[in-house]
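quick one, 107 residues, struct below
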Amino acid sequence: TMENAFVDFIELSHVRSSNKVPTFRCAKFPRGCAILNESSIRNLPVLSVEIPISPNSNYIDVVRMVKFEPIYKYPGGNTQPKLLTCLGSDGNRYQMLLKGKEDLRKD
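---
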């Protein structure tokens, strides 16, 4: 479900490697992660795309998530943020930064 996908986003943002992680090291998503289940994310908008306000509440053309690449990267940082790549409904690839317990504006 969509709720499971959001829970997985939060849980993944808190995953920390016990060792110092080299910058841009790749890691696989945890087994059973709802984010990889296309039906869980099908109606979610791509979170890194600006969505203009529609005066008539018509958001039919909003770019939505289709699927995620099965790996993510550690771009570096104290809280070990994760850089995810998803395919949007418009055919483009989008990156999303997940950070646990930290302000996204700091990086």
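The helical segments are 2-14, 38-41.
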